[in-house]
Amino acid sequence: MSLKARINDDMKAAMKAREAERLATIRLLLAAMKQKEVDERIELDDAAIIAVVDKMLKQRRDSVTQYEAANRQDLADRERFEMTVLADYLPQPLTDAEIDALIEAAVASTGAAGLPDMGKVMGAVKSQMAGRADMAAVSARIKARLTR
Q1: pLDDT tier at 75 (50, 70, 90 boundaries)?
Q2: For residue 34, is pLDDT > 90?
Q3: 96-147 has which fold?
Q4: Has residue 127 got a pLDDT over 90?
Q5: What is the DSSP string of 58-97?
Q6: Are residues 30 and 45 in contact, defined by beta-carbon separation less than 8 angstroms?
Q7: pLDDT over 90 (residue 130)
Q8: What's the predicted TM-score (pTM) here?
Q9: Residue 37 burial by CB count (10 A; 0-12/13-18/19+): exposed, middle or buried?
Q10: Can you identify the CATH homologous superfamily of domain 3-87?
């Protein structure tokens, strides 16, 4: 079953179970997917859907930070709930050891010797880690690896 079909099935299940918050989050995801399809005139595959979900999760993380700074715990909790719903559509996250192994393989394959080569390494690992790791944390790890 494709990811798109799974999301549609989950929407129907949330409707039947009368889970209003979960339904609202799934509808937001479907709207974002449809917007991307219309904007780019394409049919989204699973990889593109994962990219949309990843982008939405990043927006929610940023929102939680802002809401907590403004002492709006109610809004921060809602964003966290949306994050848990959206995270269900991402593939299994990579472990720290797997991330380090992929970084080492990318450094070896690109011949990166220092920080100026960071873009090459990021380009090599980004497609392998899409939706499976926080790319900001991966970037920090690559930077630390290339500076030693």
Answers
A1: very high
A2: yes
A3: Arc Repressor Mutant, subunit A (1.10.10)
A4: no
A5: HHHHHHHHHHHHTT-HHHHHHHHHHHHHHHTTSPPPPPHH
A6: no
A7: no
A8: 0.80
A9: middle
A10: Uncharacterised protein YqeY/AIM41, N-terminal domain (1.10.1510.10)
